[in-house]
């Protein structure tokens, strides 16, 4: 297994994983839409996507990071927005490896750090984040405003 930065060569594997990720979060399957979305992120260099690929070139998992900035710190930060491991590849340390590759990306880009959010009842994810060195922020509150009903 290898973890690589997704490029046009990995769109098929990444889009399938991305579609499965969305279905996990109760969205309708839309593989064509997933291909378009992932292709646009790669083409426009709007995110950093790392994908775990097995020896047969199958996608095992992916992580997608989006850039933001901290005005107070006057530096770039990243949002770890998407993390998913195929159900057949879980419990093999792939999610931890994807997170560690994300940490390397943060250092490589000179960013201040990265943030993420997860649902309060996603205990498996919270345990993973604690295990990989994340700190739960009880100092700040997270608010959401929506322009539509996503």
Describe the structure.
- This protein has 150 residues and is an alpha+beta fold.
- The protein has a single domain, classed as Aminopeptidase (3-Layer(aba) Sandwich).
- The protein is 34% helix and 23% strand.
- It contains four helices and five strands, in the order βααβββαβα.
- Strands 1-2-3-4-5 form a five-stranded mixed beta sheet, with helices on both faces.
- α1 crosses α2.
- It is globular and about 45 Å long.
Task: Give the gist of this structure.
This protein is an alpha+beta fold and 150 residues long. It has helices at 11-24, 31-43, 94-108, 123-131, and strands spanning 2-5, 48-53, 59-70, 75-85, 114-115.
Low-confidence stretches: none
Oligomer category: single chain
User: What composes the largest sheet?
Assistant: 5 strands, mixed
Distance between the first and last residues' Cα: 35 Å
By CATH, the superfamily comes out as Gcn5-related N-acetyltransferase (GNAT)
Q: In order across it, which strands form the biggest sheet?
A: 1-2-3-4-5
Please indicate the count of domains: 1
* CATH T-level fold name: Aminopeptidase
The CATH architecture can be named as 3-Layer(aba) Sandwich
Sequence of secondary-structure elements = EHHEEEHEH
Strand content: 15-25%
Total helical elements: 4
What is the mean pLDDT? Answer: 94
């Amino acid at each position: 297994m290898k973890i690589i930065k997704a490029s046009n060569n990995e769109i098929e594997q990444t889009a399938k994983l991305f579609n499965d990720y969305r279905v996990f979060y109760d969205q309708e399957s839309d593989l064509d839409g997933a291909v378009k979305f992932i292709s646009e992120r790669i083409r426009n260099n709007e995110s950093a996507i790392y994908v775990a690929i097995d020896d047969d070139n199958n996608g095992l998992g992916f992580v997608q990071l989006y850039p933001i900035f901290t005005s107070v710190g006057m530096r770039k930060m990243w949002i770890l927005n998407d993390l998913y491991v195929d159900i057949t590849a879980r419990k093999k340390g792939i999610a931890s490896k994807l997170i560690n590759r994300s940490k390397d990306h943060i250092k490589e880009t000179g960013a201040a750090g990265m943030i993420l959010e997860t649902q309060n009842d996603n205990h498996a994810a919270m345990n993973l984040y604690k295990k990989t060195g994340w700190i739960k922020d009880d100092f700040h509150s997270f608010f959401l405003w929506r322009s539509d009903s996503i």
